[in-house]
Design a protein that fits this description.
Blueprint: E1 3-7, E2 12-17, H1 22-31, E3 38-42, H2 48-59, E4 63-67, E5 70-74, H3 85-88, H4 96-105, E6 107-111, H5 124-132, E7 136-139, E8 143-147, E9 155-157, H6 163-173, E10 179-183, H7 189-200, E11 204-206, E12 212-216, E13 224-227, H8 232-245, E14 247-252, H9 260-268, E15 272-276, E16 279-284, E17 294-295, H10 307-316, E18 320-324, H11 334-340, E19 344-348, E20 351-355, E21 364-366, H12 370-382, E22 386-390, H13 392-395, H14 402-408, E23 412-415
Parallel strand pairs: 2-14, 3-13, 9-10, 17-18, 21-22
Antiparallel strand pairs: 1-22, 1-23, 3-5, 4-5, 6-8, 7-8, 10-12, 11-12, 14-16, 15-16, 18-20, 19-20
Helix pairs in contact: 1-2, 1-4, 1-7, 4-6, 5-6, 8-10, 8-12, 10-12
The structure holds uridine-diphosphate-N-acetylglucosamine.
Uridine-diphosphate-N-acetylglucosamine (UD1) binds at residues 23, 26, 92-93, 119-126, 160, 162-165, 186, 190, 304-305, 327-328.
């Protein structure tokens, strides 16, 4: 049936452990190509995007094994520079293989990548950064072909601080000749994780997590072991579930330092959030309050990936809220589905105007992308009666087992 069924209206109690970060894992897996040896990646989320990346790596010659949540990747024998279309078009992160393959093999050929339909999502900045490093990139209507006998370090300035373009540039620069200075870089924690992984393999990188990253190319990387940090978006989703449904829940293994804006926002909604080490307790007894105006932003701002979950919270909170999405213009698609469940939301001039105090009622709703799909699950938890969220495969791109996790938190939810 490809759906998730939720019997809503329960307060939540219980505890669950947060999986490893999808957005950290995908570029790190791509970067293992740069290592002519073995990478052991622990706390790796078993989600469909990771399975896609594993197939892509296998297709070019990596040997890969799963041991529980550990992935062991042997990239000693990579040889194929062409990537298979059926997996490339499944997700946008396949573009991360470009920088890594150019760095290791000097050549790559792939179709235009796919991904969630949340906005235009061009790849011009990725290609610009790799061209600056000396790659010759040819584009046809369908395919991209890039070549470089040797990438050469240089100054690269991104006009927009794109997460993916920052990562691709780092991947290209790690084995390049000389120094690359990347300015106006994105500062997301997943970029820091990628740099930590590469440093553990012998790369020379300074400034990760700031807007200027300096990479001194090294001749070769070596085998390494790395643990993926907890997923700040999955943790934020369950944090908002606690705020929306009330009760008391505990989340373990959360990346606290990556979640300041999300925690601050949950507190603005009047959720009581307590942190001890990497454990978060969320309690809510009274009604939640709307937020007069909140904008999504690049890290350390409020994450665009949390925007849909926030929209659900604002729909049931008291009073009016306004959300402004500044990263992906097409990320309000769930508003229509939420209105079908009883929410009052209007989208105008790039902002969502939400009249709160909605009593949501269960019905069949359709997920169109990953984070919006997870937010519809939260709406189902808050609604009376039964909600069926169709197209659960979108949610499985980023959540290992959202039903198991939310059942541990006391929800009545199952895959159908
Ligand atoms: C990453 C995350 C995604 C998150 C997003 C913003 C992964 C796998 N995905 O996506 O979950 O929502 O960061 O935090 O890590 N842009 C261009 N040209 C380009 C590239 C981007 O114009 O070549 C624009 C995009 O249209 C968008 C903005 O830059 O408006 C930011 O996008 P970017 O940071 O690149 O997002 P992703 O890396 O795709």
């Amino acid at each position: 049936m490809d759906s998730i069924q939720i019997k809503g209206g329960r307060t939540l109690t219980g505890e669950t452990r947060i999986q490893g970060s999808k957005n950290a894992t995908l570029p790190i897996l791509a970067s293992t190509i740069l290592i002519p040896g073995i990478s052991v990646i622990t706390h790796c989320p078993r989600i469909s995007d990771v399975e896609t990346m594993v197939r892509l790596l296998s297709s070019i010659g990596c040997s890969i094994e799963w041991n529980a949540d550990e992935l062991v990747i042997d990239a000693t024998d990579v040889r194929e520079y062409r990537l298979p279309r059926e997996d490339v078009v499944r997700m946008r992160s396949s573009i991360m293989l470009m920088g890594a393959m150019l760095g290791r093999m000097g050549e790559t050929a792939l179709d235009y990548p796919g991904g969630c339909v949340i906005g235009k999502r061009p790849i011009d900045l990725h290609l610009m950064a790799l061209r600056r490093l000396g790659a010759v990139v040819e584009e046809t209507e369908q395919k991209i072909h890039a070549k470089a006998s040797r990438l050469i370090g240089t100054a690269v300035r991104l006009p927009i601080n794109s997460v993916g373009a920052t990562e691709n540039c780092i991947l290209g620069a790690v084995l390049a000749e000389g120094v690359t200075i990347l300015s106006n870089a994105a500062m997301e924690p997943e970029i820091t994780a990628l740099c930590e992984f590469l440093q553990s393999a012998g790369a020379s990188i300074e400034g990760a997590g700031t807007s200027q990253i300096t990479i001194l190319g090294v001749p070769q990387l070596h085998s390494t072991v790395y643990e993926i940090p907890g997923d700040r978006i999955v943790a934020g989703t369950y944090l908002f579930a606690g705020v929306i449904c009330g009760g008391k829940i505990t989340l373990r293994d959360i990346p606290v330092s990556h979640m300041s804006a999300t925690i601050r926002t949950a507190r603005r909604l009047h959720g009581d959030v307590r942190i001890t080490g990497n454990i978060m307790e969320i309690e809510r007894r009274g009604k939640i309050e709307g937020i007069p105006l909140i904008r999504t932003g690049n890290y350390p701002g409020f994450p665009t990936d949390m925007q849909s979950a926030l929209m659900v919270a604002c729909a049931v909170a008291s009073g009016k809220s306004v959300i402004e999405e500044t990263i992906f213009e097409n990320r309000y698609r769930i508003a229509r589905e939420l209105c079908r469940m009883g929410a009052a939301i209007e989208i105008q001039d790039g902002k969502a105007y939400i009249d709160g105090d909605a009593s949501l009622h269960g019905t069949q709703v359709i997920a169109e992308e990953l984070r919006g799909g997870a937010a519809l699950v939260l709406a189902g938890l808050a609604a009376d009666q039964v909600t069926n969220v169709m197209n659960r495969h979108f949610i499985e791109r980023g959540y290992e087992n959202i039903c198991k996790d939310l059942r541990e938190l006391g929800a009545d939810i199952s895959y159908r």
